[in-house]
Design brief:
Oligomer: single chain
CATH class: Mainly Beta
Order of helices and strands: HEEEEE
Number of helices: 1
Number of domains: 1
CATH architecture: Roll
Radius of gyration: 15 Å
Structural class: mainly beta
Helix content: under 10%
Strand order of the largest sheet: 4-3-2-1-5
CATH topology: SH3 type barrels
Length: 82
């Protein structure tokens, strides 16, 4: 039978820092040059971040949830509430 293996947490300084900003507006700049902006919704143990894009161009467009690997992110900007 044996012991169950625990999933290891993703170890990245940016990942650990962003866990404090769940629910805040963030802007990611990816290695490909693409810029994503939205609310940070979830972060999985294996380095996947989920953002809900809040900039909707049309009232008929649905809101999008985008998944991004932490290792693909170059820069992150967090909008702080004042």
């Amino acid at each position: 039978m044996g012991k169950k293996k625990k999933k290891k947490k993703y170890h990245d300084p940016m990942y650990r820092y962003l866990t404090n900003y769940m629910g805040h507006e963030v802007t990611f700049t990816l290695e490909s040059g693409q810029v994503l902006s939205g609310e940070l919704m979830d972060m999985t143990r294996d380095g996947l971040m989920v953002i809900q894009e809040t900039e909707v161009l049309s009232p008929f467009a649905t809101q999008l949830r985008t998944m991004v690997r932490c290792q693909d992110v170059l820069f992150v900007t967090v909008q702080m509430e004042t």
